[in-house]
Amino acid sequence: MPGPTDRPSDRPATDAPSPVVVAVDGTSGSGKSSTSRAVASRLGLRYLDTGAQFRAMTWWMLQHGVDVHDADAVASHAGTPVIESGTDPADPTITVDGEDASVAIRTTEVTGAVSPVSTVAEVRTRLLGLQREIIGAGDGVGIVVEGRDIGSVVWPTAEVKLYLSADASARAQRRTAEHAHLGDVTSTQAQLLERDTIDSGRVTAPLVQADGALAVDTTHLTLDEVVDLVVGLVEEHS
Fold first, then answer.
1. Distance separating alpha carbons of residues 71 and 153, to the nearest angstrom
2. E-strand spans in the chain?
3. How many CB atoms are closer than 10 A to CB 84?
4. Are 60 and 81 in contact (CB under 8 A)?
5. Residues 6+ apart with CB under 8 A from 193
6. Per-residue pLDDT tens for 128-168?
7. What's the Cα-to-Cα distance from 104 to each of 139, 143, 146, rounded to whole Å?
């Protein structure tokens, strides 16, 4: 599979255009998921939520009694769980060892534990390989990928790169609304800001605005406005 850093001379000669990769990075609650899924649906592209993969890894650690604050323990188990991500934007499934984990990974317990797990280099390396494999697959169908290091680390040659942000109050309201169906899930501004600090300060693949990424503050934009913007960028590239 061609990787994001392969030189042109390493790739087979072809006149066919490469499938577009849209990298959507940004802070929690900035609208990455809603935007990415809507863009993928409108353009007939695949969709990948890399954050769900880190949550799935975290959920597995909790289920198996691994201390998520013990980096060595997390690292030693990072290669064990079998994590599979569906790429249909209408039904983006996530399974762990064959078990549907789409609801379980959104609980308060997982939300509170995902940051320390995500900082472990072995976890990021394991999931980086999985993410690149999924992006490179698809039989010529492009993909919208959301996360925190897609444009900077996972696929730096993405044709379209965005960095979404919003003020903490708006993000907290959105995240709480997204998870309202789970009953006990809420996101306070303090929790989101703490997650921002951890993600931005980690040594491995920190949350940053990638080179060439368009910064979009979604605080005062509707979802349709953001989606229209991204779709326009993809169509311009095509």
1. 21
2. 21-26, 46-49, 83-85, 94-96, 99-100, 143-147, 160-165, 214-217
3. 15
4. yes
5. 168
6. 999 999 999 988 999 999 999 999 999 999 999 999 988 87
7. 31, 25, 20
The letter for the amino acid at 221 is L
Quick check: 94 and 143 in contact, CB under 8 A? no
Q: Where do the domains of the chain lie?
A: 19-233
Which secondary structure element, helix H or strand E, spans residue 163, and what is its range?
strand 160-165
Structure tokens at 107: 């609980």
Nearest Cα neighbor of 102 from 91, 113, 112 is: 91
Token duo for residue 133: 């494999």
CB 174 within 8 A of CB 228: no
Choose the CATH number for 19-233 among 1.10.1740.10, 3.30.470.20, 3.40.50.300, 3.30.70.270: 3.40.50.300
The number of beta carbons lying within 10 Å of the beta carbon of residue 164 is 25
Helix (H, G, I), strand (E, B) or coil at 130: helix
Cα dist from 139 to 62, 144, 145, 215, whole Å: 35, 15, 16, 30
Beta-bridge mates of residue 100: 95
Percentage of residues in the chain having pLDDT higher than 70: 77
C-alpha 101: how far from chain center: 16
Q: What does residue 198 show for φ and ψ, rounded to 5 degrees? A: -65, -45
- Tell me the pLDDT band of 45, cut-offs 50, 70 and 90: very high
Q: What is the pLDDT of residue 31?
A: 86
